[in-house]
Amino acid sequence: MNAKRCGGLLLLLLIIMTMPVAWADPSPSGASPGPPSPGPPSPGPFTPPSGPVPAIGRAWPVGNRPPVLRGWEPPATVYGRGHRGVDLAAAAGAPVRAVAAGRVSFAGRVAGRGVVSVELAGTDLRTTYEPVAATVRKGDEVAAGEQVGTVQPSGSHCAATCVHWGLRRNEAYLDPLSLLPPWLLRRGPSRLLPVLGVALP
C-alpha cells in the first residue's frame, strides 16, 4: 500500500513539475501562444566573464616596462563609460610585439587607425594593439616577443604617442595587464642574492 501511495505521489509530482514547461511551449496545432515576448533584455551591469586570465605574457607590447598612461577602468554597464584596455607610452615608430604566442586574427585599419589583433594560443583570449602599422598579416603565427607592427605617430587618443593595448574574451573586455606574470610587472632591476651554505666553484 505504501509503495502504491509513494508511486502515485511521485507521478503527481512529476506531472506538476512538467506543467509549466508544457504551458510555456506553444503547441504547433494552433494553440494560443500566450503573452508576447518582452524582447531582448536591456543591458545590465557589467560582469566580467568567468575564469581567470592566465599569466601567459612573455613580453611587454612596447619597450621594457613602459609607463602606463591610462589604466584599465572597467565600465559599470556593457555600454557604459570606461577604459577597455591600457595606454602604454611609446615613441612613434617603436616596434610593437606580441605579448604571447598566437595567430593574427586581424591586421588592418578600423576608423582610420591601424589595428592588430592576435588570438592567443591555447586560450579563448584575443589581444589588440592600436594605432599600429602592421608588419604581419591575418593568419600569421606569431611567437611571444615577435614584432607585429610599429607605433603610428597619429591616430592615438592619448595626449602623447601611445599604444592602446586591449584584451577580450569573446565580447567581454578584460585587463590586459593580467596577462603579464608578476616578474614582468615588477619595477626595478633583478638582483641575485648569495646562496648561503653552497661552496663557490
Structure keywords:
single chain, 201 residues, alpha+beta, eight-stranded antiparallel sheet, three-stranded antiparallel sheet, 11 strands, 27% strand
| Portion in strands | 25-35%
Model regions low in confidence, pLDDT < 50 over at least 5 residues: 10-47
Structural class, judged by helices and strands?
alpha+beta
Order of helices and strands: HEEEEEEEEEEEH
Got a strand count?
11
Query: What is the tally of helical segments?
Result: 2
Assembly annotation: single chain
Give the helix proportion (percent range). 10-25%
Global shape: globular
Note the main sheet: 8 strands, antiparallel
Mean pLDDT: 78
What is the first-to-last residue Cα distance? 88 Å
What can you see in these coordinates?
With 201 residues, the chain is of the alpha+beta class. The protein starts with a helix and ends in a 16-residue tail after the last helix. About 19% of the residues have low confidence.
Short description:
This protein is an alpha+beta fold and 201 residues long. It is 13% helix and 27% strand. The protein has helices at 2-24, 182-185; strands at residues 68-70, 86-89, 95-97, 102-110, 113-120, 125-130, 132-134, 141-142, 147-151, 162-169, 172-174.
Would you spell out the secondary-structure blueprint of this structure?
Blueprint: H1 2-24, E1 68-70, E2 86-89, E3 95-97, E4 102-110, E5 113-120, E6 125-130, E7 132-134, E8 141-142, E9 147-151, E10 162-169, E11 172-174, H2 182-185
Antiparallel strand pairs: 1-2, 2-10, 3-9, 4-5, 4-8, 5-6, 6-10, 7-9, 10-11
